[in-house]
Amino acid sequence: MKTILAAYSGFIKGTGSSILSALQDLPSGLWPCTSKMEKHLQVISVMQWVISFLALGAACTALLIYIFCTDCWLIAAIYIAWLIFDWNTPKQGGRRSSWVRNWTVWTYFRDYFPVRLIKTHDLLPSRNYIFGYHPHGIFCFGGFCNFGTEATGFSKKFPGIKPSLATLAGNFRFPILRDYLMSGGICPVNRNSIDYLLSQNGTGNAVIIVVGGAAESLQCTPGLNSVTLKNRKGFVRLALRKGADLVPVYSFGENDAYKQVIFNEGTVWRSLQKKLQKMLGFAPCLFFGSSWGIVPFSKPITTIVGEPITVPKIEDASEEAVDLYHAMYIKSLQCLFDKYKTRFGLKESDILHIH
């Protein structure tokens, strides 16, 4: 009983090496095997994130409305008042929590796939950066694990650099979910938020933008190395305006987490997906994984952070300048992919398709 209590205390405080290590002293008859229990914890850690991303915002909104209609309406009223007061916080650097970023649950999340972060070059804390993350995948597991938590040791590998993963601004309109996302250093992918991080928050900031966005997620499927980038120049223009260096990032295995039913162009279903994408800001995908359909496949995800491209500060950059640095970025991403592809399960003949 004391061992169980110690395990629970360590999990809540986030100071124990893991729940598993505290429970290993229990009689072996109580557990089928250590590795099996560890795998269950890994599945639970991934599922809590998937369910949180899909349903936490809607569930908390419904709960808030329900509480407002009960005798406890004052609690809901106070929270709504605070929400209004705090509304612009996500656009002003958010509310990062190193405690949340270091939760033990994220190590189980990391080990489920597993997720790895590989550094190729040093980043100077005296500069600001825009990381272009590719590909999107369905849930961007590699992006979240590497930049929204400390499970892969980002702060140790890049000392002095503070990562901010950018996601849909709509997520920050939901109660509780907005605070959960901000605690990981996640910010809205809009101009106000990114401008603040790159111009009013000092140096050593790295904003991670999933360049392909919702359109790219509609094309992701296991074994496909494809990115949506040819006509995505907004992040380059932003980098020039702020003088932030561009860093290409590629995650091998990101597309292998789920299988997806891909509808051909011109079909009714594809047209419906595109319409919903414009309305909602994200693309509704018909995907499935291993257990229960929603649990992703346990496939390795390896994220390579490439060499930074030095970008000058040009307030009103010409189209020629934007095209130049966009071309440099594409070439750098292509070289990054070609250099590391054979190390992570791909063939020498595999190519990166850029759309």
Structure summarized in a few sentences:
With 355 residues, the protein is of the alpha/beta class. The protein has helices at 2-13, 19-23, 34-68, 73-85, 98-101, 105-112, 141-147, 154-157, 177-183, 191-199, 213-217, 234-242, 268-280, 319-340, and strands spanning 115-119, 129-134, 162-167, 187-188, 205-210, 226-227, 245-252, 259-260, 287-288, 301-305, 353-354.
Protein architecture, described:
- Mean pLDDT is 89; it is low at 1-13 and 15-20.
- With 355 residues, the protein is α/β, with parallel strands linked by helices.
- Strand 3 (162-167), helix 9 (177-183) and strand 4 (187-188) form a beta-alpha-beta unit.
- It has helices at 2-13, 19-23, 34-68, 73-85, 98-101, 105-112, 141-147, 154-157, 177-183, 191-199, 213-217, 234-242, 268-280, 319-340, and strands at 115-119, 129-134, 162-167, 187-188, 205-210, 226-227, 245-252, 259-260, 287-288, 301-305, 353-354.
- The chain is 43% helix and 13% strand.
- The strands form 3 sheets. Strands 1-10-7-2-5-3-4 form a 7-stranded mixed beta sheet, sandwiched between helices.
- The radius of gyration is 21 Å and the shape is globular.
- The protein has one domain (36-343).
- The protein is built from 14 helices and 11 strands.
